[in-house]
Request: fold
Amino acid sequence: MIDPVKQIIVVRKDLITDEKNPMTPGKLAAQVAHASLAPILEKAYGEPFSNRKFDKKSYTLELKLEEGSPIKEWLEKDFRKIVLYVKSEKKLMDVYDSIKQAGFNVSLITDKGLTIFKEPTVTCFGVEPLPHSVINPFVKKLQLLK
Reply:
C-alpha cells in the first residue's frame, strides 16, 4: 500500500464562526497560505522564518533535500494539503504541542491584528509534509474544514 505524503494544516473554526467578528474567507485563505509555506521556509533556513532579518533587496532560498525526503516527494508529486479544524485556541495548541514534541517541523501562525482581528491572534498551524502513517496518529480525530 502506498503511504502518501501530505501537508496538514489545522485552523481554529471558532474564529470563522464568531458571530461578532468572523474571519473572512480571504483572511482564512491568507492564514492557510502562511501555514503551508512557513514549515518549508523554516526547513530551508533551519530556524523560524519570522526570525530572519533581510538586509538585502533580494535573497536566495536553497532547500537541500535528501533523496527519499517526504518534502522532496511532496514537491515532486501533488502538493497534497489537508485542512482540518479544531474548535478553540486551546485545542489548536494541544495538537500543535503534541506534533512539535514528537520532533516534527510545525509552524504556528499568529495574525498581527491589523485588519480583521484587533490584536495578535493565533489562527492556525502548518506541519511539514509527512507520510500519512506518520502524521495521522496526531490528527485522526480532527475533521475536514468545510
The chain has five helices and six strands. The domain at 1-47+89-139 is CATH 3.40.1490.10 (Bit1).
